[in-house]
Design goal:
single chain; about 210 residues; mainly beta; Immunoglobulin-like; seven-stranded mixed β-sheet; six-stranded antiparallel β-sheet; disordered N terminus
Length: about 210
């Protein structure tokens, strides 16, 4: 056998394996996933005490998404960018988790996602009724949910037909901060992903 002919073939094969897999819709995905586990009792609890994840999300290949497995807060800061405009929030129910999609006009802003037992409106500080449960609070910075004329672009979304998430409410649009509360009966596992083309933030909440 000609060994000289085998070497280029092996190199080509290695290059093909390193190329990765694109998303089916042509968009790029970046993932930040919480890593700790919820309490075994399943009862409501306050926010986790560990430090939030701060590393930028990594690209993930296409494929069937498993259920999320962690509850650690996720934090991705982005400074010096034009505030992204929230244009809508969509929902879908999947096997093992509920999906909430935040759509943007502009790039995906910075965000913090964490469980809270108490949530207040931005600016006014008015408590939001969690119906005795918890809220997976999504804080977007810099972002806005209104037009240049001051007209709201998003004020809330129905949680039907979701299972884990029982309510989706705006916690405010104030000075470059947009808050979204995903209300649930207890702390549940979750995961956060970013997608482009179009730009959107995806939060999966485990059943």
């Amino acid at each position: 056998m000609n060994i000289a002919r085998l070497v280029p073939l092996a190199v080509c094969g290695a290059l093909l394996l390193s190329c990765g897999t694109a998303q089916p819709d042509g968009s790029a995905a970046r993932t930040t996933t919480s890593t700790s586990s919820p309490s075994s009792s399943g009862s409501p609890s306050g926010p986790t005490t560990g430090p939030p994840e701060t590393s930028a999300p990594a690209r993930t290949p296409a494929g069937t998404a498993p259920s999320p497995t962690g509850t650690t807060p996720v934090q991705v800061p982005r400074e010096g960018m034009v505030p992204a405009r929230v244009t809508g929030v969509r929902v879908a129910r999947h096997d093992g988790f509920d999906r909430v999609v935040v759509d943007f006009e502009g790039d995906v802003p910075g965000y913090t996602v964490r469980w809270k037992s108490k949530v207040e409106t931005e600016g006014a500080g008015k408590p939001i009724d969690l119906d005795g449960g918890q809220a997976l609070h999504v804080m977007l910075i810099p972002a806005e949910a209104h037009t240049e004329a001051g007209e709201p672009t998003w004020t809330g979304t129905s949680a039907e037909p979701l299972t884990a998430v029982t309510g989706i409410v705006s916690t405010g649009d104030f000075e470059g901060h947009v808050g979204i509360a995903l209300i649930s009966d207890r702390t549940r596992t979750f995961r956060v992903k970013e997608y482009t083309s179009p730009d959107r933030l995806v939060i999966d909440v485990g059943h």
